[in-house]
């Protein structure tokens, strides 16, 4: 089994069981550099499990995941976590910002964890906050901003290290449709401007509309959606 030509991240025949539940039951996936792929499917179909496996957070029971020519399973835990810090960015349904830190400190955090000096990290963080139109919130704590603003701060944080893959799990799931649209527009514009690939998990068609391609997951099995011509 080999990775599809030109793909940055791919998975073949992934299986993952939690007790009697087959969360993944032979799922396939591939994404090219700079591509935005929506992973669609009803609740409980295995979307988050697929994302966690692709990101090297959860090991599949079987199957092969290849990132940039390397099999994730052949890496040590340390190599996988270093890869997550250097090459991957993450956005979840609820921003998961650190409440004690200001918004700019939250955005700068991944750079600080990679060893950057505070001033330099915050300068870079601010440029990302400008792109996500939340630079005016730099000094505020997450508790002082709205849900949509907090999610834009979380998107800025996910992109601050210029990851090659952005993993977004229901990034607009907690937002009303207007704020959700704005977050998706800014997220996909920012990702496309840096050629980051985006694995976008959602069960909402209007969110998937921002993708280049859709994959549907049902009962742990995935298939490409036929393009609508
Ligand atoms: N850590 C876990 N422990 C037990 N069951 C789990 C765990 N994670 C997921 N599952 C189960 O696996 C199935 C797929 O879950 P998930 O990947 O979260 O689906 P989705 O993101 O599409 O809603 C569900 O039946 C869920 O209950
Ligand atoms: Mg989920």
From TrEMBL:
Short name of one Pfam family: ABC_tran
InterPro entries attached to this UniProt entry: AAA+_ATPase (IPR003593), ABC_transporter-like_ATP-bd (IPR003439), ABC_transpr_LolD-like (IPR015854), MacB-like_ATP-bd (IPR017911), P-loop_NTPase (IPR027417)
One GO molecular-function entry: ATP binding
Residue ranges constituting the ABC transporter domain according to the UniProt record: 9-228
Keyword ATP-binding: yes
Top-rank taxon: Bacteria
PANTHER family from the UniProt entry: ABC TRANSPORTER RELATED, IMPORT ATP-BINDING PROTEIN
Protein name as annotated: ABC transporter ATP-binding protein
């Amino acid at each position: 089994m080999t990775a599809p030509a030109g793909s940055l991240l791919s998975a073949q025949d992934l299986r993952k069981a939690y007790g009697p539940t087959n969360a993944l039951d032979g799922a396939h996936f591939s994404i090219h550099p700079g591509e935005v792929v929506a992973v669609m499917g009803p609740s409980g179909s295995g979307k988050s499990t697929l994302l966690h496996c692709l990101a090297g957070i959860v090991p599949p029971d079987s199957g092969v995941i290849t990132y940039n020519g390397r099999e994730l399973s052949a890496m040590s835990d340390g190599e996988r976590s270093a890869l997550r810090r250097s090459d991957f960015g993450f956005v979840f349904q609820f921003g998961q910002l650190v409440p004690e830190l200001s918004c700019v400190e939250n955005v700068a955090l991944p750079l600080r964890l990679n060893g950057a000096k505070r001033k330099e990290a915050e300068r870079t963080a601010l440029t990302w906050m400008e792109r996500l139109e939340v630079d005016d919130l730099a000094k505020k704590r997450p508790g002082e901003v709205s849900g949509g603003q907090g999610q834009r701060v979380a998107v800025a944080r996910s992109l601050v290290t210029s990851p090659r893959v952005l993993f977004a799990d229901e990034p607009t799931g907690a937002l009303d449709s207007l704020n959700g649209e704005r977050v998706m527009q800014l997220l996909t514009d920012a990702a496309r401007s840096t050629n980051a690939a985006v694995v976008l998990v959602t069960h909402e068609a209007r969110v998937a509309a921002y993708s280049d391609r859709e994959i549907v997951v049902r009962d742990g099995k995935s298939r490409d959606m036929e393009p609508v011509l």
